[in-house]
Amino acid sequence: MTPPAEVVHWMFGVGFLFLGLCLAAEAIVGREIWRRRGWRAYLWPSMLAHGAWAQTMMVAGAAQLGLVRGKLRNPLWELTLPLALLVSGAAFLIHEQNPWLFSRAAFLHHALGWTALAGAFICLGRAVRPRSPVLNAGFAVTIIVFAFLLFCDRNVAPIFGHLSPLAGGR
Question: Which residues contact 82 (CB under 8 A, 6 or more apart)?
């Protein structure tokens, strides 16, 4: 069931209100006091990183819709998809500060980041050679790998060492 549009807007509004109140609190108490809790220093940059990722994905989606509907005719619009994947891959890799095997989340961020960067180069090739069956298949495989990684992340894998019992059943 999809929530009504106003509910989605309210959820985003709550997020922005929380962020604004946190920034106001930092302005009141000062940066040194505010950053005594480590997570607080990462709140604003993480919002910007997720925002940049979302914005480039939306631009790419809008461009793809415009190309399919015939509203956009310039083939340069095809470059929005490699850009979106490049920004997404960079966001995943920059966002994760831990090594690959630190945790499941770290592994997933690294795997998705590098997959997105590889996908960016595949999409760049598709922009130059749109009828290439190899590049089109490569793009399909990239999306399937994304799905595979996201589905497999729900598994508790012993490769990551000793996990808290709160992480889920084995």
Answer: 120, 121, 123, 124, 127
Q: What is the pLDDT of residues 74-91, one digit of tens each?
A: 999 999 999 999 998 998
pLDDT single digits (tens) 54-63: 889 889 999 9
d(CA 96, CA 29): 28
Decide: 77 and 66 in contact? Cβ < 8 Å: yes
In the DSSP assignment, the letter for residue 169 is -
Where are the domains positioned within the chain?
1-41, 48-167
**85 contact partners, CB below 8 Å, separation of at least 6:** 116, 117, 119, 120, 123
Ramachandran bin of 52, using left for φ above 0, alpha for ψ from -120 to 50, beta for the remaining angles = alpha
Count other C-beta atoms under 10 Å from residue 120's C-beta.
Answer: 21
Give the integer Cα–Cα distance in Å for 28 and 42: 18
CB 127 within 8 A of CB 67: no
Q: Where are the alpha helices (DSSP H) in the chain?
A: 5-29, 31-34, 38-41, 43-69, 80-95, 104-128, 133-152
The pLDDT assigned to 147 comes to 86
